[in-house]
Amino acid sequence: MSTHAPVEGRHVAGVVVGLTAALTVVLTAFAWPASQLEPRGVPLALVGPPGAGDQVAAALAGSTAPEAFEVTPAESRDAAVTAIAAREAYGAIVISPAGTEMLVASAAGPAVAQMLTGMAEQMAATAGTVPVVTDVVPLPSADPRGVVFGAGAFPLVVGGIAVGLVLALRVPGRTRQLVTGAGVAVASGLALAAVQQLWLEALAGSYWANAGVYALAIGAMAAVVAGMHHVLGVPGLGLAAATILLLGNPLSAITSAPELLPDGWSTLGQLLPPGAAGSALRSTAYFDGTAATAPLLVLAAWLAVGVALAALPSRQSADRRTASRPGRMLEMHQPA
């Protein structure tokens, strides 16, 4: 009797289970963070007379979850605008005898700006007044909702991983990989910034600074992918790609804001290359580089890790040393 059918059946079942599990993991990785988006300690400035804080707290309690906002008093409207420009607050509520004004910054996060706008409309409806909303740090007119900015996130991540795969599998030698990787990162950074800023006009600020962020992000992701392959072989490729793509991309908050993700996950997202790249690019493009230091250091750290991994003994070298040992050679030549 043939035993091929049961073996093939088990193989098919294994493939079905494995691919189903993989697809489930991918869907969960991308869909779960999106399902958990809500304000969690979003920094908000408040300008108003004594007692205004209680009034705002009551209004927020009726429209949002507890501790959704972290309200900090500001001395004046100008001080609130300064806090927003310094990325210390996403917006501000300004209460004056003339009425209530909501300051937002769509460049800091369109999702938060939209949320604050809706809150202003609700507060105005309760008071029987007309909502006044001012965008003090707007997005470029060519991308007023940040759609183009957000759309560039996934290609950046996939591109960084792809560069790492090519370096690992097609470029021999550590020095050649480093030189090639650096060249590709710089050229890609210049090209991506040109598309987003010079053509689509979705970015503002310094073209060179934006290109530098793109280059550093691509270099960091590529270096880690290639470095993990150098040390662990093919499993290293999978581990690095999964970390960057399945964890880093969904938790990057590029299309929302880190304060909208669950605690802990938001911090992790900013410590991974996609989240750090998005935050750094938002700072250089719309806020003159304010608050870009921390995410740039994160990217630099990932780049350093990748380079350090490339300096370690390779998986292939270890396998060759093991195979060359006398005992191993005798064992390999022993009859079955």
User: How many helix segments?
Assistant: 14
What is the SS-derived class? Answer: alpha/beta
Q: List segments where confidence is low: pLDDT < 50 over at least 5 consecutive residues.
A: none
* Largest pleated sheet: 5 strands, mixed
Broad shape: globular
What proportion of the residues is helical, as a percent range?
55-70%
Number of strands: 5
> How do the helices and strands follow one another from N- to C-terminus?
HEHEHEEHEHHHHHHHHHH
Strand percent estimate: 5-15%
- Output the strand order for the largest sheet: 2-1-3-4-5
Mean pLDDT: 89
Q: How many angstroms does the end-to-end distance come to?
A: 27 Å
Describe the model.
α8 (207-232) runs parallel beside α12. The chain is 65% helix and 8% strand. β1, α2 and β2 form a beta-alpha-beta unit. It has a 5-stranded mixed beta sheet, with helices on both faces. It has helices at 4-35, 52-63, 77-85, 110-127, 147-151, 153-170, 174-199, 207-232, 234-248, 265-270, 273-286, 293-311, 315-323, 326-333, and strands at residues 42-47, 69-73, 91-96, 99-104, 132-135. With 336 residues, it is α/β, with parallel strands linked by helices.
